[in-house]
Amino acid sequence: MSGQQTLTSPNSDRFHAMSAGFLGWTLDAFDFFVVIFLFDTLAAHFHVPKKQIVLSVTATLMMRPLGALLFGMMADRYGRRRPLMWNVLFFSIVELLCGFAPNLTVFFILRMLFGIGMGGEWGVGASLAMEHAPVQWRGVLSGILQSGYPIGYLLAALAARLVLPSWGWRAMFWVGGIPALLALYIRTKVPESEAWERHRLTRTLDGPRIAWQHKWLSLYLIVLMFLMNCLSHGTQDLYPDFLKHGHSVAQNTVTYITMFYNVGAVVGAVIFGLLSERLGRRHTMVMALAVALFVMPAWAFGSTLTMLAVGAFLMQMGVQGAWGIIPVHLNELSPDAVRGLLPGFTYQVGILLAALTPTVEFALRDRLGYAWALTSFELVVIAALSLMLVFGKEKRGRSFVQGSEGSAA
After folding, report:
1. Strand, coil or helix: what is 34?
2. CA–CA distance from 18 to each of 102, 183, 238, 322 (Å)?
3. Which of the residues 42, 68, 87, 206 has an alpha carbon 20 to 30 A from that of 112?
4. What is the CATH number of domain 11-189+207-390?
């Protein structure tokens, strides 16, 4: 490890920066996963086939690169703090409006707009958090930051259990407007990034130009994030529906299993994030993928409810274990001047390329059966992703403030 950074901000500032990134990603994920639990409800309400509601998830994913581009450019020009605040307000208002959608067309447009907000949050929040993190704690803090995603998923499952039966589907989205309060916290408590102050851009359009100068790195990160998003969305988006229709699990039980395996996701993100400080980013991610591969039979073909639940827990422990390293890995690989843009943009372009994942798996279901559709898709993804990581590179421990590129591992 080389290029240790010097952070002059007090611990309270680091805590607030980390909290803002974590809470933003948690609440953003909650707003996204609400739809996952409403496939049947929304299809019945709007009088359309369920596949059209599934397609709205794809539409959300496809709009995320635009949000990453817009908010990422602002983050490198105007700082991390203000764009993050604007982003939280934007996606919260759009989520609130989804609860008032009178028809499928309006709902579909709102979900596309939400995709812009969701796409912008991760890159800005991750750069803010990682630039404040002490270098020796980056791995575990990266895991905690990324664990906001499964925690948001868990909260959406909890809302499906408590809010949906009593208040209906519209209230699920109204609850999603609460994150707007986070903007006030960011406004009053969150400090600006010292690393951004050192490397700030003077023109907004300089960001894409600098990113283009690193086009091979950008291409590598896009392919990596395409596969990572196929991994996560391929194991998460349809899994509640798979349990319900592939294994005839009751809706209430599906909700509890969803909560359970998202606990596994949080555990995996933190554990493997911590391990990455000792074993390196790439090698630890490969270890996490090995866990996912090992438990795949129980995850998809479990003959009992217990086996399915344990398989799902360990599957998400592996999947989100690999994902927990992504915030620090991408930020360490990114050039200093475009750390607000490049990690988030490549992540969201990967989302765009992987946007059809739930649609493809849903189509494969009719040919292979639900279990084999999920399994065959993920086997290919894990194999390709492992090769990408084995032959890739990393810059564990590089300085963000001093601008040192550190040592490639």
Report:
1. coil
2. 38, 14, 30, 20
3. 206
4. 1.20.1250.20
Q: What is the chain's length?
A: 409
Please, which pLDDT band fits residue 10 given cuts at 50, 70 and 90?
A: low
Sorted by where each begins, the domain ranges of the chain are 11-189+207-390
Q: Is 245 exposed, middle or buried (0-12, 13-18, 19+ CB in 10 A)?
A: middle
Q: Average pLDDT, stretch 154-166?
A: 84
Give the C-alpha separation, 180 to 84, whole Å.
11
Q: Which own/partner contact pairs does 391-396 have at CB distance under 8 Å and 24+ positions apart?
A: 392/220, 392/224, 392/282, 393/282, 393/333, 394/280, 394/281, 394/282, 394/329, 394/332, 394/333, 395/332, 395/333, 396/1, 396/276, 396/277, 396/280, 396/281, 396/332
User: CB atoms < 10 A from the CB of 6, how many?
Assistant: 9
Which structure tokens are listed for 238?
A: 């349809």
CB 145 within 8 A of CB 129: yes
**Model pTM score:** 0.82
